[in-house]
Amino acid sequence: MSISTGIDKDFTEIKLILPRALSELFGNLLVDNGCKGYVAEERGRDKVVLKGYLKGKLKAESLLDKVNKYAESLRKLDKNDLEVEVQLTEIKEEDWSRNWKKTFKPIQVTNRIIIKPSWIEKRFPQKLVIEIEPKMAFGTGEHSTTRLCLRALEKYLKTGDRVLDLGTGSGILAIAAAKLGASYVLALDIDQDAVSNARENIKRNKVQKIIDLKLGTLNSKISDDSFDLIVANLTKTQIVEFFDGMNRVLKKKGIFVLSGIQTEEKKETEKFLLTKKVLLKETLSEKEWVCFVGEKKLDEEF
User: Fold this and answer.
1) How confident is the model at residue 3 (pLDDT cuts 50, 70, 90)?
2) Rg of the chain over CA atoms, in angstroms?
3) Do the Cβ atoms of 52 and 46 come closer than 8 Å?
4) 110/124 Cα distance (integer angstroms)
């Protein structure tokens, strides 16, 4: 395992280069240890690059130690020369933001939906425009999973629907739901920085009267059968973990939009959803990512 470090008080990007087959295992390790999700990029035929972001030197050093120990345990278990390359790089928030302003351009997700950075003054008449101020690691609309969810929302959300956005991040999906005609959107995230960024973006798009943004996750205070549609752009592990809670608050015949699932996880996730009495309506895919759209059915309908 080769390691390069550059850690200070600002954000730290942790980049793992590893065999594709280990992508989910190490991706879950990143999420479980403070990263707000992760981005996976292909590296040749057999390898993948995972990128996550953390605040603080101690968190980064702790995660580095766990990655080392986990890789070593896998090497002993499989008795092979498993190689996981780790790079930790300090990224000052102001430098990150400045670089984004050079590279982040309007993104046309569908014929109708456009994501536009706040500093671009160009207007897009006859389009549904989502204007955002990008912050580190909370979503800009460039990632495949965000685009897949937006495509599903545009197709399946009906005017007047009540929507839950679980793991809202920058708020893009909640804002899209509001602009597509939802009457109420509950947007939840457990990360205070993400919630702060989402609040800015919600206000910027003038949908704060529709979106109820909260720090936290699903809990018993949310009534059963509260939502017509639930969108969750998480990870496969998190979707499995939170599914029963989501299922409880979704109305009968309500719609699930579930993404953050990698292609190699597709069959296993599909099997899981079928055991949970979800009628799969559509599977969307882009690059190495998958989005499931399903309908909650009554037991007697199976």
Assistant:
1) very low
2) 19
3) no
4) 13
What backbone torsions phi and psi does residue 187 show, to the nearest 5 degrees? -110, 120
Three-state DSSP class for residue 56: coil
pTM equals 0.76
Helix boundaries (H) for the chain: 23-32, 57-78, 93-103, 144-156, 172-179, 192-204, 236-249, 266-275
* C-alpha distances in Å from residue 115, one per residue of 121, 206, 215, 266: 13, 15, 24, 27
Domains of the chain: 3-91 (3.30.70.120), 139-301 (3.40.50.150)
- Six-digit token string for 216: 């936290």
Contacts of 96 (CB under 8 A, 6+ apart): 11, 136
Indicate whether 269 pLDDT > 60: yes
End-to-end CA gap in the chain: 50
Contact 23, 48 (CB under 8 A): yes
